[in-house]
């Protein structure tokens, strides 16, 4: 038996049209009611109630049954922003069109917190540190573990993880990338997005279209939040490949990640460059670990991690065979038993709670 849909209750036909438009943008089926009495019929079963400001005074004057998650919605200028006890978020009405993105997100989530896939973000301590390679290794580990994995490339100036995976020419019908999503209002279900993304079995890669594009700029925060939330609802694991910057979209990814990995080559210059990023990473993230690559006797992984003030996530030795693989244009999946792949397998098992 299907779960009950969110409920929209309003007698204002103009407001109802707006709310149905936002529901369509969120790809969510909803139930509707044009009176308080009809709303109360579905009230106990609805995971979320979106109540028009026109009906709220009537509902408030009666004996309203408790509901864990409901919002009051009005057009800007119709009601004030005084607090309403029991509302989601800050307890204030949502005003349209200002709060359309907020409401669309709530509708897309069905009004309930729901299950969220674990999310790990990877960022390089300096250019060429190997962050994209680690992101690809984690995605491949997710696929090996049987987890549907989303690999989100947040760097508009990077080469693209689809190149490392060798799937940039996959014959995907009506392929889309960030370029197609940055101006979109509302949300997409991941099940609608994934069939239009390249990637080997078990991995969906959301990246940028290749080639010069003078219009390309930083990823908008709204697009970043929307697609990350969509991926977390539709996948078993999400891996984000971040640029070395702290724009609003990067901050959104950091805020929502369960773990952030800072990849640092065991070189003095790399440690100095990475140390400039650490305070902001720690401020914006739940947990940050250092992944040290190519440590030698003089500058060990422990020394690098202590110098950065971060726990050591991994000490990865040099892998000449892997470098030759990439130079030859072959994908890193050809090295499933490398130290990098072994670390990725262990981390994915920890994140997903599924033993290897």
Summarize the structure.
The protein is of the alpha/beta class and 356 residues long.
Describe the model.
This protein has 356 residues and is of the alpha/beta class. Helices cover 37% and strands 16% of the residues. The chain has 15 helices and 12 strands. It has helices at residues 13-25, 36-42, 56-61, 100-108, 131-144, 161-165, 178-181, 190-193, 221-234, 248-256, 268-275, 278-284, 301-308, 320-327, 339-352, and strands at 7-9, 31-33, 49-52, 70-75, 94-96, 119-124, 149-153, 203-206, 237-241, 259-265, 288-293, 312-316. The strands form 2 sheets. It has a 7-stranded parallel sheet, sandwiched between helices. It has a 5-stranded parallel sheet with strand order 2-1-3-4-5, sandwiched between helices. Helix 1 links the parallel strand 1 and strand 2 (31-33). Helix 5 (131-144) crosses helix 15. The longest helix is centred in the middle third of the chain and has 14 residues, at 131-144. The chain is elongated and about 75 Å long. Mean pLDDT is 83; it is low at 83-90.
List the helices and strands and how they pair.
Elements: E1 7-9, H1 13-25, E2 31-33, H2 36-42, E3 49-52, H3 56-61, E4 70-75, E5 94-96, H4 100-108, E6 119-124, H5 131-144, E7 149-153, H6 161-165, H7 178-181, H8 190-193, E8 203-206, H9 221-234, E9 237-241, H10 248-256, E10 259-265, H11 268-275, H12 278-284, E11 288-293, H13 301-308, E12 312-316, H14 320-327, H15 339-352
Parallel strand pairs: 1-2, 1-3, 3-4, 4-5, 6-9, 6-10, 7-8, 7-9, 10-11, 11-12
Helix pairs in contact: 5-15, 9-10
């Amino acid at each position: 038996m299907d779960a009950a849909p969110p409920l929209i209750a309003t007698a204002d036909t103009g407001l109802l049209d707006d709310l149905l438009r936002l529901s369509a943008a969120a790809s969510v089926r909803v139930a509707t009611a044009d009176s308080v009495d009809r709303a109360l019929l579905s009230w106990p079963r609805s995971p979320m109630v979106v109540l028009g400001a026109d009906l709220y005074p009537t509902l408030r004057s009666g004996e309203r049954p408790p509901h864990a998650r409901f919002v009051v919605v009005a057009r800007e200028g119709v009601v004030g922003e005084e607090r309403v006890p029991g509302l989601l978020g800050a307890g204030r009405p949502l005003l349209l069109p200002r709060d359309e993105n907020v409401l669309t997100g709530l509708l897309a989530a069905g009004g309930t917190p729901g299950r969220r896939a674990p999310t790990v973000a990877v960022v390089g301590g300096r250019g060429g540190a190997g962050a994209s390679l680690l992101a690809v290794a984690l995605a491949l580990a997710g696929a090996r573990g049987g987890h549907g994995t989303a690999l989100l490339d947040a760097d508009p100036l990077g080469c693209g993880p689809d190149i490392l995976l060798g799937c940039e020419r996959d014959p995907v019908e009506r392929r889309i990338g960030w370029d197609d999503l940055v101006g979109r209002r509302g949300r997409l279900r991941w099940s609608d997005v994934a069939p239009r993304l390249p990637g080997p079995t078990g991995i969906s890669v959301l990246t940028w279209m290749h080639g010069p594009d003078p219009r390309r700029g930083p990823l908008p925060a709204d697009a970043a939040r929307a697609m990350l939330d969509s991926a977390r609802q539709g996948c078993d694991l999400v891996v984000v490949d971040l640029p070395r910057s702290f724009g609003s979209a990067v901050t959104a990814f950091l805020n929502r990640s369960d773990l952030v990995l800072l990849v640092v080559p065991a070189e003095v210059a790399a440690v100095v460059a990475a140390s400039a990023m650490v305070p902001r990473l720690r401020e914006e993230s739940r947990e940050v670990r250092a992944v040290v690559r190519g440590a030698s006797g003089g500058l060990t992984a422990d020394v690098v991690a202590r110098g950065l003030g971060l726990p050591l996530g991994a000490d990865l030795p040099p892998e000449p065979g892997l470098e030759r693989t990439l130079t030859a244009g072959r994908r890193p999946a050809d090295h499933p038993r490398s130290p990098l792949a072994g670390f990725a397998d262990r981390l994915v098992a920890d994140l997903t709670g599924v033993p290897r």
